[in-house]
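ESCALATION

Customer reports they have been waiting on this structure for their group meeting. Please prioritize. Original submission:
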Amino acid sequence: MVGKWVSPNHYTFPLLVKVCADIGSLREGEKAHARVVKFGFESDLFVRNSLIHMYSVCGRIGDARMVFDAGPDWDLVIWNTMIDGYVKNGEVGIARELFDEMNERDVFSWNSMISGYVGIGDMEVAKGLFVRMTTRDVVSWNCMIDGYARIGNVLVARYFFDQMPLRNVVSWNMMLALYVQSKDYNECLRLFDSMIKGGEHGFKNRTGPAGSTEDQCPIRSGSLKKPKN
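Update from on-call: job pushed to the front of the queue and completed.
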């Protein structure tokens, strides 16, 4: 494209940087960043968001924060990307500091923080955030089930499962796996029968394909890739 003397625009670089993030190539991502600066797109919100995500995925959270701080303005998406990056790099405390600074939050913001506390096993804080949410989605509920499943608290995990207004296949699978883990095979089979029968809160109400990442707790679905040179 450059060889043909065609100038890139603010749509070009997010696509290029996304590819670098998807393949975990930090070297190519840094080259893309250099071109962003060369062509004067370092202040563009879409470009900055893609760079923050790329550096976070590649484990360079400090570079991601530099991109975040360097911008003249910030939208909700960039805040969410930075917070999610900190969470997935194990920096839950710093993520919480940013979360508390936000003037506006959406369900993704809350889910990212809940998943962070789930990841470090602090279910008291995770539950406190969950209770404060004015709007919850299936990921919010799945995060709580996942968190209590991790610490082996079957009763509380089942309580959240039973309270869900809508379940998906991820919700069911987490509870089934928890019953297997706790060796309660009879309850596992009963739950599986309920899942197959469907009904108001059954298997038919899943909101996406089996295992789709948008239905999972982010801490489980968002694995970090090792950067490639």
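Sent to customer with the following note: The two ends are 23 Å apart (CA to CA).
Escalation resolved.
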